[in-house]
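Hey, I'm writing a tutorial for new members on how sequence and structure tokens pair up, and I'd like a real worked example in the thread rather than a made-up one. If someone can provide the structure for the chain below, I'll link this post from the tutorial.
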Amino acid sequence: MKISSLFLLLASFLLLSLSCTQEANYTVTAAHDSRVLVAQDKETMEHLIECAVTRECKPWSVMELLPSRKAFFVESGTRVAAAGGLFTFSDAIKVHILEGEHSGEDAWVYDRMLYQDISSVPYQLAFASTYQTDGR
């Protein structure tokens, strides 16, 4: 293997691992709704996820969380930053909201509602380095 190819492979691995573990930008998106329900703390989000999966919670128990601000809505497509990557033992991910009515606040979101923001620099670097080839 040529040294330049080995260097390119190592650089690609480094950029990909950095983009997976460092703070990265995502959008919080709901496929069929204009808003996404997020929670103020991890326990509340895990409860909401459990309710959604098992369908064994009463609808008003979720609605009771809204006035207390333990749960609130953000617009679908809202940009957020997730620190530390997405590799956790929970389906709840802590994010920092970057725009909209709740800009500057931290919240917890169901990990399946997060989509990589392809306009972010770490994503573009990792994507570009993965598909570069040695021209020789």
